Task: inverse folding
């Protein structure tokens, strides 16, 4: 049975835009064949009372995974020390830290089923000269990671691009 | 994260798992694309009214990498667009027959993330990309492996009783 629904909006609606500052970004590269070991070590980070604000992963070379995670800056020293200890056991892995980043994220209705949503956001950011360090769209969410201090401007650009209903 | 005791180990309680339909995974890499290239890729695809249900993008001082998923039916159009694009990619990788396995909620937990990545490693399931949303983590692997991954995940996670089918009963498509 085919069901057709009609959903129309003049300007793409989002359910609010959230900005967080005082965050850092870690890029951890490791071989896919070492995913078992690194999976265990990543799970151990929980013991340092660290929780992530955003995570993404891509293959960046044959058999090399790049895991990005964003978390609170006050956890940087503890985590950086821990990661460097683990790196001593895996010469093929690499870690890189960016200690001052902001994150802006939003979500909206059926974003995963509709074309042009991400394009609207990133075209607007590019036109305003914003540098996006990383980004991710999954489900109904969109995350933008930008250098520290750029969160407010990014939020303003996205606020101008999308429609945020003022009442439920 | 709530953890429950199991006979031999502690399982992580989650709300659920769902599978996508079969998709195509595309990765573009360049030795530093121009700042406009990422949005340029998205513009080209949006102009053809093609949906992108998943994106993971990262920029470093010397390289850009963009991974995204599209529906199978859109592959020919997207490949034509990329061939005609003015920006230069050092690598375009197209993987057909992938699927997204989404686990929710993630509760911002490195324990859940690490344990799931470990399962992919231990059983040699390919992991092409992943990304978190506000409440879930989406993992891209081979479509034919989705059921096998879920079986292996059952050793570390606990699903609620009466869980809905992993595969969606319907799909949505935006029309012109």
Result:
């Amino acid at each position: 049975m085919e069901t057709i629904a009609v959903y129309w909006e003049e300007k793409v609606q989002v359910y609010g835009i959230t900005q967080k500052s005082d965050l850092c970004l870690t890029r951890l590269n490791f071989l896919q064949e070492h995913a078992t070991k690194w999976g265990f070590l990543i799970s151990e980070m929980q013991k340092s009372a660290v929780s992530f604000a955003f995570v993404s992963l891509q293959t960046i070379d044959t058999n090399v995974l790049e895991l990005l995670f964003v978390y609170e800056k006050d956890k940087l020293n503890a985590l950086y020390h821990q990661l460097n200890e683990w790196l001593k056991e895996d010469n093929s892995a690499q870690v890189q830290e960016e200690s001052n980043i902001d994150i802006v994220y939003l979500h909206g209705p059926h974003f995963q089923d509709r074309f042009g949503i991400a394009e609207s956001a990133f075209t607007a950011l590019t036109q305003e000269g914003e540098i996006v360090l990383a980004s991710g769209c999954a489900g109904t969410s969109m995350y933008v990671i930008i250098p520290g201090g750029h969160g407010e401007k990014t939020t303003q650009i996205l606020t101008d691009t999308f429609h945020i209903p003022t009442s439920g | 994260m709530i953890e429950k005791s199991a006979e031999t180990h502690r399982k992580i309680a989650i709300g659920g798992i769902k599978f996508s339909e079969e998709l195509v995974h595309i990765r573009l890499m360049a030795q530093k694309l121009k700042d406009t290239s990422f949005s340029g890729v998205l513009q080209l695809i949006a102009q053809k009214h093609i949906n992108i249900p998943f994106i993971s993008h990262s920029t470093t001082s010397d390289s850009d990498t963009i991974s995204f998923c599209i529906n199978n039916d859109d592959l020919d159009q997207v490949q034509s667009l990329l061939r005609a694009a003015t920006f230069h990619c050092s690598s375009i990788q197209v993987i057909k027959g992938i699927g997204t396995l989404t686990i929710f909620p993630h509760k911002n937990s490195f324990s859940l993330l690490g344990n799931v990545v470990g399962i992919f490693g231990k059983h040699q399931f390919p992991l092409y990309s992943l990304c978190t949303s506000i409440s879930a983590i989406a993992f891209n692997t081979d479509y034919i492996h989705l059921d096998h991954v879920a079986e292996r995940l059952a050793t570390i996670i606990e699903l609620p009783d009466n869980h809905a089918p992993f595969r969606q009963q319907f799909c949505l498509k935006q029309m012109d």
Q: What stands out?
A: Helices of chain B lie at 37-47, 75-84, 110-122, 146-153. Chain B touches chain A through 63 residues (CB under 8 Å). The domain at 12-20+97-158 of chain B is CATH 3.30.70.260 (Alpha-Beta Plaits). The beta strands of chain B are 3-5, 10-13, 16-19, 23-30, 54-59, 64-71, 91-104, 129-132, 137-142, 157-158.
